[in-house]
Amino acid sequence: MSPAMAFLWRDFRIAWSYRASFLFQAGSLVFSLVSLRFVADLFGQASPHGLAEYGGDYFSFVSLGMGLSLLAYPVTKSFAQGVRAAQVTGTFEAMLTTRTSPVAVVFYSGLYPILVACVELAAMWGIAAFALGAEFHIADLPLVLLVLALTLAILAGIGLCSAAFAIAFKQNEPLTNAFLAGSILLSGIMYPTSVLPGWLERIAFLLPLTHAVELTRALFIEGASTSSVGVHFAALAGFAVLLPVGFLVLQHSITWARRSGSLSQY
């Protein structure tokens, strides 16, 4: 069994030992979607002006935004959480002495929550489209997968930097929470960024999730504006540099912790 599969199997067995959590997690996903469907029904046929460039259907609009936000927390937090769990249980230093590279150990420790989040994303969009009436029209599936891959790479880069902080300072850093909160507020997840004041809209452009959401809507919603697709794609590709940066920062934090003799501390 490969190291990646070993970590996935370990985390699956731990999660499966709490079977009720699977049901509650699936139930909360459905309840959230149904709630969004009811909110969308409030608009009826009177679509707000800001939704015109997104095809006019609020449920389709918000389902795509909420789906991507579903990825953000586990991808940015799972690596640091895996590190902290191993530190507290006293297994972190032992895992780093195996033949698997230390960077790979940290990376593999966050794979299971990310895989679960990807499955939930597919389930959410599938339920929204086939059971609740979201109007999705995927014209270019490879491009959709590329956008999702870039989004995962960016979020993983942020998560690896967070794990590096946990290794170096033995605590969780606060900046990821600020990033997640800012993205929920400014990235157009539940409402178009056009409703924001001008100065906030400019800040929103600096958040990678803004570009991921805009590209996804352009690719999923028939009639959505595609005039800025090139700009958003270039921005998302530029932010993807965060993944190699994350690996580099993680490697340096492990090297520093080894030299200072703090790997076994928590």
List keywords for this structure.
266 residues; mainly alpha; 12 helices; 73% helix
Q: How would you sum up the global shape?
A: globular
Our count of helices gives 12
State the helical fraction. over 70%
The H/E string reads HHHHHHHHHHHH
Main sheet? none
| Helix-strand makeup class | mainly alpha
The value of Rg in angstroms is 20 Å
Q: Overall mean pLDDT score?
A: 88
Distance between the termini: 30 Å
Number of strands: 0
- Show unreliable segments: none
Beta content comes to under 5%
Annotate the secondary structure layout.
Elements: H1 3-16, H2 19-43, H3 58-89, H4 92-96, H5 102-109, H6 111-130, H7 141-169, H8 175-186, H9 198-204, H10 208-220, H11 229-239, H12 242-260
Structure description:
With 266 residues, the protein is mostly helical. 73% of the residues lie in helices and 0% in strands. Helix 1 packs parallel to helix 5, helix 3 packs across helix 10 and helix 7 packs parallel to helix 12. The longest helix is centred in the N-terminal third of the chain and has 32 residues. The mean pLDDT is 88.
Task: Summarize, please.
The chain is an all-alpha fold and 266 residues long. The relative contact order is 0.15. 73% of the residues lie in helices and 0% in strands.
